[in-house]
Amino acid sequence: MQSEGRKAHWEGIYTSKSENEVSWFQENPAPSLELIAQIGATPASAIIDIGGGASRLVDNLVEQGFEDVTVLDLSETALEAAKARLRDDAGHVHWILADVTVWEPLKAYDIWHDRAAFHFLTGDHDRAAYVARLERALKVGGYAIIATFALDGPEQCSGLPVVRYDPESLGQTLGRSFRLVDTRRHAHATPWGTEQSFQFSVFCHGPSPAPTR
Ligand SMILES: C[S@@+](CC[C@H](N)C(=O)[O-])C[C@H]1O[C@@H](n2cnc3c(N)ncnc32)[C@H](O)[C@@H]1O
Q1: What pLDDT score does 4 carry?
Q2: Is residue 205 over pLDDT 90?
Q3: Where are the alpha helices (DSSP H) in 29-123?
Q4: pLDDT tens sequence across 19-28
Q5: Against a cut of 0.85, is the pTM above it?
Q6: CA–CA distances in Å: residue 119 to residues 40, 103, 142, 169
Q7: pLDDT for residue 51 is more than 70
Q8: What is the mean pLDDT of residues 53-66?
Q9: CB-defined site of ligand 1, < 6 Å
Q10: What are the pLDDT digits (tens) for 150-178?
Q11: Which residue has its alpha carbon closest to ligand 1 atom 12?
Q12: Helix, strand or coil for residue 162?
């Protein structure tokens, strides 16, 4: 899908549905918070939530004292909803309105978090563009926490096809600069009570491997 079509799709979703009318709504983003704590994040850790949308992860991070939090999403409506919810605290957060596949990162982060955005990239070109941004925007020694639908998860979300991953296939897609350090499955309960299988995987960004001759 082209960037404009993708943006129009997500704007359509966020302008027509309220927070708890979307399948991915989480009152408490506990799996993400647990993994962020487990990798040893401190309040000074720079963290970016890719495709953060209107997620409540940012509220929790600000409440826990994280001082350098960025939320990136291509939907202005989603970002505005999160800002309105945070009120004065929104001013302590960096907001980036962009499609991650064409975004030009201006700094490097300690933690890259993505829950349910990467799996919408079904084309090789888009996936390669994502990984190129991940390599540039994540410090060497930093961690990427990426949650996708698991192999037994849904084949579609929000009317769009997704690619389902296990930790190995996700690692292969990210390439040799990323070493899998942790993984867990999570059964997400949608607001209407059905279950979706997610796979959360944590990768450490190592130095780029030397080119082979
Ligand atoms: C299923 S929602 C998940 C939202 C949030 N991560 C959460 O856990 O509540 C997917 C989000 O990714 C965003 N998104 C999809 N493709 C994107 C892209 N290429 N660049 C940036 N954001 C994207 C959508 O606007 C949407 O907010």
Answers
A1: 85
A2: yes
A3: 30-38, 57-63, 76-86
A4: 999 999 999 9
A5: yes
A6: 26, 17, 21, 12
A7: yes
A8: 98
A9: 6, 10, 24, 51-53, 55, 73-75, 78, 99-101, 115-117, 120, 157
A10: 999 999 999 999 999 999 999 999 999 99
A11: 51
A12: coil
Give me 22's structure tokens: 């979307």
Which atom of ligand 1 is the closest one to the Cα of 103? 20
Give residues with Cβ within 8 angstroms of 4, minimum separation 6: none
By the 8 A CB rule, do 162 and 149 touch?
yes
Residue from 99, 95, 112 nearest 11 by CA: 99
* Gap between the terminal Cα atoms of the chain: 36
Ligand 1 atom having least distance to the Cα of 6 = 16
Q: How confident is the model at residue 137 (pLDDT cuts 50, 70, 90)?
A: very high
CA of 211 to the centre of ligand 1 (A): 33
Q: Determine which residue's CA is closest to atom 7 belonging to ligand 1.
A: 55
Rounded Cα distance between 59 and 54, Å, is 10
Q: Label the pairing between strands 68-73 and 109-115.
A: unpaired
